[in-house]
Design goal:
- This protein is 75% helix and 0% strand.
- The protein is mostly helical.
- The chain has 2 domains: 82 residues, no CATH class; 123 residues, no CATH class.
- The chain is elongated, with a radius of gyration of 19 Å.
- It comes from Odontella aurita.
- This is Anaphase-promoting complex subunit 5.
Length: 232
């Protein structure tokens, strides 16, 4: 499969070479697609100088945060692959802020306890059957926030564990308030893991783990399966 990325890079770069300046107005979506695809292919190939060249162009040309989200997604992954933890976290926090989900720069025990209490209050209003039959999340900004919280959480658990409780709580709160999406399986699993570590409530964590597995089966996304199984 890796052998396909080299010719893909050649063709995509050829496509970018055919773009004209006015295409950023008349064929805007095509321009973003080509630059983002080039960045993603070069990321797989490990050509990070080229990755940043394409990403920077896409970000500079973006007029709204929505136009920049795909490039920011790849940026976070690239920072992580290069062990640039601070850059990765800074980008994730900035994107989440623009999506209406600010993350505190300094996480205190008071904020963690508040997050747990607020999440538990939401959970207490729903039965297990209701949790298993939550509606689908339709708010685009909240869906994107869940995606970036997920990217954030994967590294936070290892590199900046103080952020993990805040992220896990907020992901579950969004799922309970706005409906579920594919990352909601991770939210339930992560919150269950959090309960085991912070409160020792293994019975509740077990129930949340079952819901996480049910959601994973419902959305059937390969990308979310490893973190769900790891947490459960």
């Amino acid at each position: 499969a890796m052998s396909a990325f080299l010719p893909a890079s050649v063709y995509l770069n050829a496509g970018i070479g055919l773009l004209r300046e006015d295409d950023w107005e008349s064929h805007r979506e095509l321009c973003f697609d080509l630059h983002n695809l080039c960045a993603e292919v070069e990321y797989v190939l490990g050509q990070f100088d080229r990755v940043w060249s394409f990403l920077n162009k896409a970000i500079q040309r973006g007029r709204t945060v929505q136009e920049k989200l795909r490039a920011y997604d790849t940026s976070i992954r690239a920072f992580g692959s290069q062990s640039k933890t601070e850059d990765m976290f800074g980008t994730a926090i900035m994107v989440l802020y623009h999506l209406g989900e600010p993350v505190p720069l300094v996480v205190t025990q008071i904020e963690v306890q508040r997050g747990l209490a607020e999440t538990q209050a939401l959970l207490s209003t729903k039965s297990e059957d209701e949790l298993l039959n939550l509606g689908t999340m339709i708010d685009d900004d909240k869906r994107e926030a869940m995606r970036f919280f997920n990217l954030f959480s994967l590294c936070a658990y290892v590199e900046k564990p103080k952020y993990f409780p805040i992220i896990a709580c907020r992901m579950l709160q969004l799922s309970l308030s706005y409906g579920v999406c594919r990352e909601s399986a991770i939210a339930f699993a992560a919150y269950g893991l959090l309960l085991c570590g912070l409160t020792g409530d293994t019975a509740k964590a077990y129930r949340l783990g079952k819901i996480a597995l049910s959601l994973q089966e419902k959305f059937n996304t390969t990308e979310c399966l490893p973190p769900v199984l790891l947490a459960v």
